[in-house]
Design goal:
This protein is 32% helix and 16% strand. It is an alpha/beta fold. Helix 2 (76-94) packs across helix 21, helix 3 packs across helix 22 and helix 9 crosses helix 11 (249-257). The termini are far apart. The model is unreliable at 1-5 (pLDDT under 50). It binds iron/sulfur cluster. Residues 6-62 form the 4Fe-4S Mo/W bis-MGD-type domain.
Length: 702
Amino acid sequence: MSVEASGPTRSTCPYCGVGCGVLATRNDDGNVSIAGDPDHPANYGRLCSKGAALGETFDLEGRLLRPLIDGKPAPWDRALDMVAERFTQAIETHGPDSVAFYLSGQLLTEDYYVANKLMKGFVGSANIDTNSRLCMASSVAGHRRAFGADTVPGTYADLELANLIVLVGSNLAWCHPVLYQRIVAARTRRPQMKLVVIDPRRTETASAADLHLKIAPDGDVALFLGLLAHLGKTGSFSDDYIRRSVGGLDEALASACAHDLEDISTRTGLSHRDLQQFYELFATTERVVTVYSQGVNQSVSGTDKVNAIINCHLATGRIGRAGMGPFSVTGQPNAMGGREVGGLSNMLAAHMQIECATDRDRVQRFWASPTIATRPGLKAVDLFDAVADGRIRALWIMGTNPAVSMPDADAVKAAIANCPFTVVSDAMTDTDTVRLADIRLPSLTWGEKDGTVTNSERRISRQRTVLPTPGLARADWWQMTQIARRMGFVEAFDYEGPADIFREHAALSAFENAGERDFDIGACARITTSEYDAMRPFQWPAPDVIAPTRQTRFFGDGRFYTSDGRACAVAVTAPPGATAPDRLLRVNTGRIRDQWHTMTRTGKAPRLNAHIAEPFCEIHPADAAFRDISPAQIVKLSNERGEILIRALITDRVRRGEVFVPMHWNDQFANRARIGTLIEALADPVSGQPALKAGLATLSRV
Ligand code: SF4
């Protein structure tokens, strides 16, 4: 398709879950200028450094522009025939559960929908998981336990209306910068707004807080149990609200009251004074929003942390009203869209439950599919274990780099390399994962592809084509459709474009749904292709009409998606303190301001690389002195899984006994700096989300 130079195209940033609107203008010289979309309700014209540098990331260097079989160019038909044949062979010989898809929060909702439909309804397995499992699976599980559905109650506007914002495990200033800018602007307008940051590191965000609680790793459950007990003791519960709308609070409170302040102090590493200050601030402020991100989710107690937070909002009735509520912010541009179409191995499409026979029957009838997966499939960590031990015989990875991003990354790399048949669809030709594939399929990337994404406040927004299709690259939904047809499912995958897929997805959300499910965008089932092309950002639910300006908030009526309509306060228990054994340091991982994931896109922009040019290890001065480590020295972090070499950054931003290493660098950008190689593949037992912030390693001079 040829795209001529023209006025700006409205699209959505491909990076974090804020989901900012972007105006992309293709200039006469072929370059693309980027500006924030002043009319987009997520950002009102703002962009962060990553979004603003998008125009510097379009060059075709390193792009995969034609299919490759065993590293050699091949026509599309031959590559597709081979993929369909090998998947069909595996299914016929070893059964449907011998194949798996591993997808990405970078995919568009339409891509996710087709993949989920093919795997669950036509292959008959639920072995379809995604890197969103690494991002927000604990929030999904916590929402489902508390609300009966995976629903984010509030909107971004609630953060501007709050009088207290509590950020838990979130360096919002670097990881969701535009949302942080909105908070900063609101604090300037209303200086009475307070900010509490709960984080083991003194991050950029923590430095701006009224109160920074430098909590011990995984001390969050204990902290919020202590808060619930304090709210109970000080008469801060909303008794009327609890009577009408909350079940299970007695058990949750009993669990909380099992800990006195001294015990909470020991488990969190926080002083009585800091604890009291936080608890009193929360108890006496009606408008509180608690925002949580990867420091909460990426933990073996991630789901319990989410519920410990939600319990405090339920007990005080601070949910579903202006300026209050628990708020999960997702890391990826379409982590939420993937959830909407069931792109996790334990979900069905349209937020229906795979464990529910009625839901399975409803989805199967809608799809007119020959089968339907009857039980949850493998979650990310288990999925790659199954690849390693030979249960998975054919694997298709799309738009993600698990050889870098998964815990125990070297083991994942070896598993993929030894899988009998691996397909990778990617825009790049040579990532750590792509180079392991038997077949590489060239995908479109941001600016070339077309579809929808959903941000952290449930806002569905369009990504649109700005540039011509390079080489023989094709959309991910198209690739899967071609495979489905070759597997014999022609009619069910007869889509001509993303608008067809979106209409079907919307129709499924409303199918036999008399208001009992939260996710309903039935109005979109009736839109024409030109209306889809012109679609303005809007929030779900939208059962009757697409209303771009309406801000939707859930649970204002005190009704939830549980069987009795009441929310569930979950009785959680505090895990034992997470102290590292002798001589080992606890390894925290996370993002830096100007890079994204494994850098395949942001690594192309010189000004983003200029922010922090190389991988580093934040080390407390006492830990550095003990090991005779000097500033900027190259140091070794190692354990039984491997070792990495990185530059020492000696700082009291981290707690003693803990180090921080960014997650981005990989073999493409820095030799031996993949931090994922050192992280044990432990996961939350409820959500399956890996504990990516809980590594243990030895630190030494080189
Ligand atoms: Fe993109 Fe997130 Fe930055 Fe917005 S805040 S421009 S969505 S990276």
